[in-house]
Write a structure and sequence with these properties.
By secondary structure, this protein is mainly α. It has five helices and no strands.
Length: about 200
């Protein structure tokens, strides 16, 4: 009888010890999940702030590209300067969005995939913007109206493509901000910078 009591007592102590250990393991996981949610929310806030600044400037990308070459080639340096300034400002905003996206926490593969998808569009916008700047420089250096016209047409097309890709990235971000029921949507919908 004495041995049975000791065995039952040891079993109870062992089970109590296991139960306490299981509780201790679950608490850090809950804390970790809260920390991840807070980290994800902070990231979303930074992305929203950078995206809002990009959105405010992206409409100016094609400003100045309606060129009437019957006015001659002398107008091209001023047009090039204006459009380059617009694209440079958009480029700075794109860099801010890319920096915010790159800081994505390792919260989940879905969030990381989303950041990568937006990054592809933003990088494409940057490439098209640079192409527009290069073609404007080519137009300015052209010695005749035909070459200048071709370069300006290409620059206008590249600038529109840059604006289109930037807008697509912004729309993707807007859809994430409006989404509910997912980790990503929750982060964007509750982040301070996304309100």
């Amino acid at each position: 009888m004495k041995k049975t009591c000791i065995a039952v007592g040891l079993s109870a102590a062992f089970l109590a010890g296991c139960s306490a250990e299981a509780e201790q393991q679950s608490i850090p996981q809950e804390v970790s999940e809260t920390a991840n949610a807070d980290e994800l929310r902070a990231w979303a806030s930074d992305v929203c702030s950078a995206a809002d600044e990009l959105e405010a400037t992206v409409t100016s990308v094609t400003d100045g590209l309606d060129v009437d070459l019957s006015q001659g080639l002398d107008q091209l340096p001023a047009i090039q300067e204006q459009v380059t300034a617009n694209l440079d400002e958009v480029e700075a905003r794109i860099e801010a969005v890319e920096a915010a996206l790159a800081a994505v926490p390792d919260a989940s593969p879905g969030v990381t995939a989303f950041a990568a998808e937006v990054e592809v569009l933003v990088d494409s916008a940057r490439t098209s913007g640079q192409e527009a700047i290069d073609l404007l420089a080519e137009a300015g250096a052209a010695g005749n109206l035909l070459n200048a016209s071709l370069a300006i047409t290409g620059a206008a097309s590249a600038a529109r493509s840059a604006a289109s890709d930037a807008n697509a990235a912004l729309q993707l971000l807007d859809s994430a901000r409006a989404e509910t029921g997912s980790e990503l949507g929750e982060a964007f919908s509750t982040a301070e910078g996304c309100r």
